[in-house]
Write a structure and sequence with these properties.
Length: about 80
């Protein structure tokens, strides 16, 4: 583990790390993903997306998993541009 990743890990809660790890996966269908959010993370899909969105703006999350955070930031920005 790099120093940067170790520092990010120390600053993120276990749940934050679980949300980021979960977000890195692909899902066959939205229904399957929502079911897994409830079963594996123990939260509602709405709460998951709220927490994930907040993590995308957190430097510690970027240091912990830059590939996932940057990919999801790009998706979020594309969605914002499409709706505005």
């Amino acid at each position: 583990m790099s120093d940067t990743e170790g520092e990010a890990r120390a600053g993120l809660s276990e749940q934050d790390r679980a949300v980021l790890s979960f977000a890195a996966r692909g899902w066959a269908s939205p229904g399957e993903k929502e079911r897994a959010i409830r079963e594996r993370l123990g939260m509602s899909p709405v709460r998951y997306y709220q927490q994930l969105n907040a993590l995308l703006d957190d430097a510690r999350a970027l240091a912990f998993d830059p590939v996932t955070v940057n990919r999801l930031r790009s998706v979020r920005q594309a969605n914002r541009e499409r709706t505005h």
